[in-house]
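PROTEIN DESIGN WORKSHEET
SECTION A - STRUCTURE
LENGTH: 156
TOKENS:
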């Protein structure tokens, strides 16, 4: 997995590139359907899989509806993410899929490093789910260590 950050006046962008040993038509449903996404991010669900449709984040006492901003089967799915945006871009390379996660958060987003850490975990989890049949176990991931590394790297 390759991770890059870009700090600008409008916020911070995280680009995460993950390679998965499967075709884009095999990978895309894991990013674009409720059944697929809940296997690796159980708090998310989809309503109307199209631009203008809705992704719902539902965790304990928090429910937030986010707008789908990009949707092209087997190529791209993106949505608002609180005050920011998340977009998955897929490219098929020799029968495998390269997923590029593009996440942009404004500077006022309260927990940038923790959010970036979560998406990095999810990108690894998607790969394991598609290739091996089960997502990563959150209990075995050192969120604090990765979050601290991101904070140090980004001067947060």
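SECTION B - SEQUENCE
RESIDUE ASSIGNMENT:
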């Amino acid at each position: 997995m390759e991770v890059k950050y870009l700090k600008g006046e409008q916020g911070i962008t995280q680009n995460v590139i993950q390679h998965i040993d499967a075709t884009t038509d095999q990978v895309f449903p894991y990013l674009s359907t409720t059944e697929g996404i809940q296997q690796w991010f159980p708090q998310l669900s989809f309503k109307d899989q199209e631009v203008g449709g809705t992704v719902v984040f539902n965790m304990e006492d928090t429910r937030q509806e986010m707008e789908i901003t990009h949707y092209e089967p087997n190529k791209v799915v993106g949505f608002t993410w609180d005050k920011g945006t998340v977009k998955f871009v897929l490219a098929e390379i020799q029968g495998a899929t390269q997923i590029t996660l593009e996440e942009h958060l404004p500077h006022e987003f309260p927990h940038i490093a923790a959010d970036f850490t979560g998406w990095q975990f999810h990108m690894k989890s998607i790969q394991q789910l598609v290739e091996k049949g089960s997502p990563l176990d959150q209990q075995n991931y050192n969120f604090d260590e990765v979050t601290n590394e991101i904070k140090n790297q980004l001067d947060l």
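SECTION C - NOTES
The chain has one domain: 2-154.
The longest strand covers residues 62-72.
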